[in-house]
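Deliverable D2.4 — example input (structure tokens):
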């Protein structure tokens, strides 16, 4: 019995803006909530507040082309 384990990817947050106060960063966060799935404010060194956003990655459509041998590939050719 083999189980398929899905590879779990970590979220890649993108920093959108930096502000000196939390109030300014929070206003920007509220604006960005309309267009992004997740938005957060993080405090960094020297009291800098950064607004970060994350959107889920777009899944690629897999085409169903056969990559195997052709139907008549194994038949012998007679002269």
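Example output (designed residues):
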């Amino acid at each position: 019995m083999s189980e398929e384990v899905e590879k779990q990817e970590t979220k890649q947050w993108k920093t959108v803006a930096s502000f000196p106060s939390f109030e300014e960063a929070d206003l920007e966060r509220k604006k960005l909530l309309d267009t992004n799935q997740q938005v957060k404010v993080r405090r960094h060194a020297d009291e800098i507040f950064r607004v970060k956003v994350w959107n889920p990655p777009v899944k690629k459509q897999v085409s169903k082309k056969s990559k195997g041998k052709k139907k008549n590939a194994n038949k012998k050719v007679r002269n």
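The longest helix spans residues 22-32.
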